[in-house]
Structures are given as C-alpha cells and as structure tokens.
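During the reporting period, we have paired protein sequences with backbone structure tokens. One record among many follows, to show the layout:
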Amino acid sequence: MKKPLIGASTALLLAGATALAGAAPAAAASKAPAAVTVNFAGTVALSNCSGSVVRMPGSAAGDPALVLTNGHCLELGMPDPGEVVVNHSSNRSFTLLSASGSGLGTLRASKVVYSTMTDTDVTLYQLNTTYAAIKSRYGIDPLTISASHPTAGAAIKVVSGYWKKIYSCNVDGFVYRLQEGGWTFKDAVRYTSACNTIGGTSGSPVIDTATGQVAAVNNTGNEDGERCTVNNPCEVDANGTVTVRKGINYAEETYGIPACFAPGNKLDLTRAGCTLPRP
C-alpha cells in the first residue's frame, strides 16, 4: 500500500526514493463533453495520508459531513484481514484545501463511521460539522461518490492533499483480486503508468474527469517487483494466475459505498444492495 508517512522528513525521503460565443460548428457538436476541471477543492491532508470531504448521491446539505481515506490510514492502526471497524469515536483533524491547494482551516472528526482492509481499503470519518457549515465558512462543496462502476479507459485524476499534487492517467483495467501481504482487495482499479503515486498519496480521491465524481480511492502499488508482499501487490485472476507489474499502481472502487448509507448519512450495512464487509 502507499505507506502512511510519519513526519515530513520521512515523507521527503520516500519521495526521493520512489518512483489534480457563437453556435458551435456541427462537427464540434458530435464531440464528447469537455473534461471537468479537477483541482484540490474538497480534498484534505491528514497527518500521514490524503483524503477528501465526500457526499453520497442522496446526501443533504444539513447532513454531517464525511471524509474518505484508506483503511490503512486509520489512526488505530491497519485493520487486520477480516476486521471491520464501525462507529468508533475519533477526534482526528484534517486540513481542508482550497482549489489551489492552500489550507483553509481544520476539520475534525467525531467518529470513524466505517473502516476495513477486507475486500477494499477504506475509512470513512464523520465530522462534527455539516456540508452546509463547511460551504458557509470555507466556500467548499464536497465531492460526490459515484454509484456507478468505473469504466475501463476513463480519464482520471488522483488528487493528493498531502503532497498537493495531481496525477493524470487512465483506468487501465480491473483486477479480479489484488493480493498484498495478508490482505485481498476485490475488483481493484489498475492505473496506466502515468499515475506513479508515492507514499502519502494513500486515500487520495480518484476523480473521473468526465463526471467530476469520485470513482475510487488510491491505495497501493508494486514498488520493487516482489510477489504479493506488502508494498508489492500482485494481481490474481479468476483462475488463480498471478501477475506482478512492477511500478504499477492501484485504487479501490467506491461505487458500492452509497448503497450502505441511509438518509442522513447513516451507515446501514443491512440495506439492500450493500456489499461492504460487516463486523
């Protein structure tokens, strides 16, 4: 996984070591819509990872706001395989970023709503404030988590609040099982090589530039060419064939998350269509 960083000096060492007026002509009318402008608005920096303020497609302005990052960025430590954390108290802080990447202020969690590294690699925090309050104070809207499966070939941007850097590439394809140490992630997103993410980019939102919505959450990459070890995930297909792609990075899909939230941003793992692992 894209390791959480401990202090700026460690982060810099990792960065050095590793490789966001008239009528149109008839011909133009048939072209695909222009890509959405992606910047740092709505992203956050954690003490050792990246993240974003997110909403579900049905979230309301008065709902408690949520922050999305990786399971392995959880301040309690990385969840064990099979472990699911729900509704755990937290006062973790996040630096909210402007469109240009400057810090606007500090947001604070009230609890860990959900966290796991089983099947996926995700943590969702609930903040002690609402989307409306964030908009009123900072002028920032949340990012929307798409409820649709990402598309192969789609143009994407990985927006790291920790590094204040935006990576641009495409969805190269999907991985049946991505195995890393004792953890297994299902139906992971594989990037094309241009997204050469590094430590500290963990938890960055992966934004589909056609929609501006969150399609996945950045989480890992094969650093050394090793097979299925920590920081060197391997791809396993439905027949059990293992493929190692040194230097290639991955994200975990997020389209299944909205089905697990009831109105008011309330987690309900028993809802129809919710496939997130349960405790």
